């Protein structure tokens, strides 16, 4: 079963193209994480929030990544990270054209 991670946190920027430039190496490194399938990067400059939605192949790989990511964000000076792991109902998600692996 595929598992999704939902992460959000307060961040004072950068956002938009500046965020893409600043974090492109980080984005490339995420592709190498065990069990990683895809990520959607999220941002809201008006509320100073950022985060992402991730898809992993297993619960174990999602848990391992979330633990590592929380520690990495703390190292970036972001002490409060909201992170949740969810199983995915693939049958319903496929009806709504969700980009998942069955």
TrEMBL record:
Keywords: Monooxygenase, Oxidoreductase
GO MF, one example: monooxygenase activity
InterPro entries: Dimeric_a/b-barrel, YdhR
Statement: the UniProt record of this protein carries the keyword Oxidoreductase: yes
PANTHER family the record matches: MONOOXYGENASE YDHR-RELATED, PTHR39169
Name the UniProt record assigns to this protein: Putative monooxygenase ydhR
Organism: Pseudogracilibacillus auburnensis
């Amino acid at each position: 079963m595929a598992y999704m991670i939902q992460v959000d946190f307060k961040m004072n920027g950068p956002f938009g193209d500046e965020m893409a430039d600043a974090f492109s190496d980080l984005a490339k490194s995420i592709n190498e994480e065990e069990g990683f399938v895809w990520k959607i990067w999220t941002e809201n400059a008006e509320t100073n929030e950022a985060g992402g939605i991730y898809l992993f192949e297993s619960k174990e790989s999602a848990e391992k990544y979330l633990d590592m990511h929380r520690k990495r964000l703390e190292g970036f000076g972001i002490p409060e990270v909201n992170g949740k792991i969810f199983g995915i109902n693939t049958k319903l998600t496929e009806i709504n054209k969700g980009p998942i692996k069955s």
